[in-house]
Hints:
The complex is a heterotrimer. Chain A is 31% helix and 23% strand. In chain A, the strands form 2 sheets. Chain A has an 8-stranded mixed β-sheet, with helices on both faces. A 4-stranded antiparallel β-sheet of chain A has the order 2-1-4-5, with helices on one face. In chain A, strand 1 and strand 2 form a beta hairpin. Chain A is globular and about 65 Å long. Chain B is mainly α. In chain B, helix 11 runs antiparallel to helix 13. Chain C is mainly alpha-helical. Chain C is 77% helix and 0% strand. The two termini of chain C are 40 Å apart. The interface between B and C is large, with 52 and 46 residues.
Amino acid sequence: MSVESLEITYMALGGRIKAVDGISFSLEQGEWMTVVGESGSGKSTLAYAIMRLVPPPGKITGGKIVFDGMNLLELDKEKLRKIRGKEIAMVFQDPMTSLDPLRRVGDQAAELFVEHEGLDMEEAKKRAEEAMKSVRLPQHVLNSYPHQLSGGQRQRVMIAMAMSLRPKLLIADEPTTALDVLVQEGIMELLNSMKEEGTSILLITHDLSLAANWSDRIMVMYAGRLAELGNTEDLVERPLHPYTKGLLDSVPDLWSDKEVKPIEGNPPDMRYPPPGCRFHPRCPMAMEICSKKEPPILSIDKRVVSCWLMAKEGGKA
Amino acid sequence: MGSLARYLVIRALAIIPTILILYTLVFIILRILPGDPILAVLGTKNIPPDQLENLRRMAGLDKPLYIQYFSYLFNFLRGDFGVTITFPSGVPISTYIAQRFPATLELAICGFIVSIVIGLGTGALAAVKKGTKIDGALKLYSILAYVTFIPLLGMVLQYIFGVYLKWLPIAQRIDPGLAPRSITGLYVLDSLLTANWAALRSSVLHLILPSITLGIVLSGAYTRLLRNNMVEVLSSDFIRSYYSRGIRERKINWYALKNAFLPVVTYMGLQFAILLGGMVLTESTFSWPGMGTFIVERLDYRDYTSIQAAIIFFAFIVGLISLIVDAVYALLDPRIRY
Amino acid sequence: MKGLELGSSLFGKLLKRTRTAIPTGAMFNVGITIILAVVLMAVFAPLISPYDPTRATPDILKPPSSSHLMGTNQIGQDILSRVIYGSRIILMVVLSATIISMAVGIPLGIYSGFIGGRADRTLSMVMDSIYAFPSLILAIAIASVLGPSPLNTAISLAVVYIPTYYRMTRGQTLSLREQLFVEAARSMGAGKLYIMRKHILPNLLPTVLVVFTLSAADAIITEAGLSYLGLSVTPPTPDWGYDLRAGQGYFTTGYWWISFFPGLMITLLALGFALVGEAMGEKISIASK
């Protein structure tokens, strides 16, 4: 899949907010990429956009999303519906509200098979049982109503449903933020096992350590724009963008006495984003040009950075 | 399912204070307010004192107040509603109620059904077409519906469909002489049970206009409520999950409707009170022989005891309906049971 | 003097808050126009009414024409004049009933919400029971005992709508009570009455306006119902509900104008209040988002 110059705008009461402003990246089959950023960086909006689930008043106002050779943004509704759940699946942030409270879990899970593979309810139920097994949930879950399950169980159900049709891409938007740390491990393991079977994973999170532990590549977003993108190991050891550096410095390390340094300042009000490089008000290495012109997007080796500091070192756009 | 039964029992017990309060309130209004209630209701006609005394005794007003309170309640629960004191005098009121109440019940049920169908249909439509002209038009419709004065709407419908087009009857429950054998008192049900097709046809035809009148006026509130609920539900997380799994939009709207419908059920209990209020006017307009017209007639005759009995009867019904609504809600929402 | 100062400062605060609550938009404008038109009609009735509404003439059952814009009824009275004068009764009854309801319901609601405890619980139960009871029937009960007259109708209506105002103010008081500025005032040693008066009361105004308009719409319909049933005025006083009933028998035989115009006015006036209420309600819920 590749995303090209994606733009998503929200029409709010105060004005227009460009939640996603010209983001481009690509994702290979079987690859795990994590999008990292603070709240308001646009990362969740990006995730929704892929399946065209951006809620109003947001609208995709520019760019392309190419998946399997098709531009998803130009598909008609029926084709899009067939892709959703089957080729691309999504897991959302809050498991407590992601299931229909009036229907049994088993019915909701089996429905996928009826809808996409044309099975009848009997067979669909059997497939749903298998799906529950694959996420290590007991069978009685199928007969339960959502409110009878815990948050962790519900999230596993969501993942089971996402996995059940073996999609090519799984998008996970902060899947563990609402859960406790022990459960988090389990969920991440599940995602990893899916990756090993060939599914691409696009994880959205604000937790850099989570990203560092599991993904192949990391993309750092700030205020709707790409800050840095690269292989996980490289990026973590040699961050190029000041924001990435700042994020790494602000994460406590269990194994060392590293001093924790939070980034100063707050994310910008997206109605009136700072001119030039959006990070410049908080950047310890800001130069004059940073407040005037938007930094170009440069690729250096396998890294993509958007920073004036790198431009001096002769990177190519 | 044990917890469901327990839940209902608790709700039933909770209704009792409400009914008692209402009974006390009505009792206070009718007995304790200043002035001799008999004289007030009868008007200040000159009545010979012994006749007045007679009337008072028939109305049970000769005993001290607190005895009246309990004995009336006790009798009421046993089905003894007292007797009429004006023309025709001395008739046990329970006979009237036994005749009239089924008529009101039948009309109430039909009116209720019509209001639900219209209300839910328009509400769901407005929600799905949110923001469009249809949504705005339906909003206007809902406001107009609930402010419409029932006799006005009733008369207009009577004129169009009864007098001008001559399609439907405009008064009474059934053509004279066709009443089916009385099992439940509900003509439609009774005619079905006794396979009396002529009675069935006649009673259904007579039900149409009054039910529609009542139904339209009641539906206004449902339209708005359902629309707003459904708009909220449609933007909720689990609906988004449904979309992300590629489920068809029609199905998704249906699931949304079921979720949005739930809070409306609790509202229905309140609406029933409004429905009963509207019954009086509807029955009057269509000369429907129910509790509403009973109260009106007895008002004209200044029959104090009948009015009292009817109103207290309504109080009990309101409590009962409240309980039924709670039961229905519990059945529909699995979160309450398990 | 204290009272006057209090009154004017309160009024000033209310005025400021009202301005933020007044919406624009078609719904509000249409509604307020209707209300104002009827009010003007009531106030200037003697000036604009073409005939004496109670005067019986031999011109009976005449359809609408240039001399009788709304026709005449079965005893020759001009319906337009009766409609114009009828607005007085309905407005007076509904307004006085509303004032009584507010005067009783609002203080009780504030008190109940603020004090809490057993008093609150008992009062709430009583109020909820009344609220759940069909308003027309309750009004019939009261009016039937008091006797038919507009004043008694007003009293019945007042009783029926007290719970509406009670519940609204109680709810608002409960949520306001927890807010910081009340806590602050209490910690500075302000007395309960002072807090209720100075802090809670002004904040209620927008909601009171909405509830007032919506229950006024309901009260108009209920009042019409009561006078329809003969519990309000007696002839020959012109009254919309009563006139509608009087003309009902003639409707299906073709003399539609006798009942139609009073009925239309009832619906129209209620509609006016409802539109205003809905418009204000929308503005408030948008503002609070």
